[in-house]
TrEMBL record:
Listed InterPro entries: NAD(P)H_nitroreductase, Nitroreductase, Nitroreductase-like, YdjA-like
Organism listed in the record: Lysobacter yananisis
Family statement drawn from the similarity comment of this UniProt entry: Belongs to the nitroreductase family.
UniProt keyword annotation of Endoplasmic reticulum present: no
Nitroreductase domain residues: 14-170
Protein name: Putative NAD(P)H nitroreductase
Enzyme class: oxidoreductase
Lineage of source species: Bacteria, Pseudomonadati, Pseudomonadota, Gammaproteobacteria, Lysobacterales
The UniProt record lists the keyword Oxidoreductase: yes
């Protein structure tokens, strides 16, 4: 008979995303960051490819990237109004730490790209869980900058890599609200030949 661990289920049940604008100082110190990353790499990884890496954005680097993203947004979306430009400028300025999770894809004769991308996505989710376990708020965001070639170049993302998510981590200014969740029974059916 399996041994249950209700604490693990309770942690999953309590997971909440905290809006980036509601994240502030203090952020994780180096020890907390390393602990979060150590937990985040414990994901399913078919073929043990480790198809991901991390890039941290902290301090002034967040604001520099925000300025560049705002300028790039004006190039990409010339009809964008001032509010959209300001949103882009502030995109990385709220949480004291942003961890970009980058999928490393490239050719692989055995493991499909989709499986490796899913592994990197699992890393994003595990990082959210780890941040919450250490008392921080966090949210997984992408937005157009995650898919823009110029932003990728600024961040050193190579041709065989993709940004899977920007994980914003900090101290929550408010308790993350619960939202309505889907009914798993309504989403489940048994296959029958």
């Amino acid at each position: 008979m399996p041994t249950s661990d209700p604490a693990l289920l309770a942690a999953l049940d309590r997971r909440r995303s905290v809006p980036a604008k509601q994240l502030s100082e203090p952020g994780p110190d180096e020890s907390d960051l390393q602990r979060m990353l150590a937990a985040a790499v414990r994901v399913p990884d078919h073929g043990k490819r480790v198809p991901f890496r991390f890039l941290t954005l902290q301090g002034d680097a967040r604001h520099v990237l925000g300025e560049r993203v705002a300028a790039r947004g004006i190039e990409r979306f010339p009809d964008a109004g001032p509010a959209a430009v300001e949103k882009d400028r502030g995109r990385f300025s709220y949480a004291p730490l942003i961890v970009a999770v980058i999928a490393q894809l490239g050719p692989d004769e055995k493991i499909p790209e989709l499986e490796r991308t899913l592994t990197a996505g699992c890393v994003c989710f595990a990082l959210l869980q780890a941040a919450q376990a250490l008392g921080y708020g966090a949210v997984w965001l992408t937005g157009w900058p995650a898919y823009d070639e110029q932003v990728e170049r600024w961040l050193g993302v190579q041709a065989h890599e993709r940004i899977v998510g920007f994980i914003h981590i900090g101290t929550a200014k408010l308790e993350a609200p619960e939202r309505e969740r889907p009914d798993p029974l309504a989403l489940t059916q048994a296959w029958s030949p």
